Amino acid sequence: MVSLSLQDVSAAYSGRQVLGGISTPALQGGQLVALLGPNGSGKSTLFRRIFGLLRGAGQIRVEGATVPRPIAYMPQDNGARPVLTVYESILLARMQGRRLRVLPEDHAEVDRMLDLLNIAALRGQNVGDLSGGQRQMVGAAQALVQNPQILLMDEPTSALDLSRQIDLLALLRRLTREQGLLIVVAMHDLGHALRFSDAALVIGGGGLVACGPTPEVVTSRLLRDVFDVEARIEPCSKGVPQLIVEGRASHAASRAA
Ligand SMILES: Nc1ncnc2c1ncn2[C@@H]1O[C@H](COP(=O)(O)OP(=O)(O)OP(=O)(O)O)[C@@H](O)[C@H]1O
């Protein structure tokens, strides 16, 4: 099974360090890991560093991979060329790092992704004519069509309506189980993190705040200390943990003073 571990990893832009000293235990395939942290804490930066788009100190270790390019990355803005059709842009993503000789199985994989993500109706449309949510679904298809063993997804549900957020996260979790994939998803919705992720990696203040099983990491205390939110976590009637938000922690503290 594939695994990813970080040892004392840092990242900088033009000499300005944004992240430092990030170490994690081996994140094992078969899991969905939520990457959490406030705006500007460095989630996208950490993805760029892991994917090799940024240099820095420390070690990024991938073990157990059985393909030459085990990692795929879905950035926040997928940068798909607006003049390409949805079908062409997914096919182009599949061909990354390979000679441009399209095989019948490549077409079959693109068709499979269109069906899997329920976007087959968009196949002939230009990417430039899509809505934000539709573009995001195409971005997910572009990442998945590469058949990675580790998938880094930067806020893949931020433009989706609620039912599509649930569908996509449930699909991603199913793929981790069925294919032994390790999927790391940067997200702001801590309720979704509680519901869909196995483990959570939290960054803030330029470093790692916590890494471990989600119910142990995403707690009222973390919400208060890292996100400045007063909240309770309670199981619903089906036993799924729910986040009940009361307000900003600092406002509550200043009212009490
Ligand atoms: N290309 C860049 N050049 C210089 N600084 C950058 C660049 N990209 C990001 N930064 C800085 O690095 C820090 C971390 O940004 P990053 O985008 O990684 O945060 P994030 O956690 O993904 O934020 P958000 O939740 O808002 O998407 C911020 O201070 C940001 O200004």
UniProtKB/TrEMBL annotation:
User: A single GO molecular function, which one?
Assistant: ATP binding
Domain named ABC transporter is located at 4-230
Classification via PROSITE patterns: ABC_TRANSPORTER_2 (PS50893)
Alphabetic keyword roster: ATP-binding, Ion transport, Nucleotide-binding, Transport, Zinc, Zinc transport
Keyword Nucleus included in the entry's annotation: no
Indicate yes or no for the key word Glycoprotein: no
By what name is this protein known?
ABC transporter ATP-binding protein
Query: What is the scientific name of the source organism?
Result: Paracoccus broussonetiae subsp. drimophilus
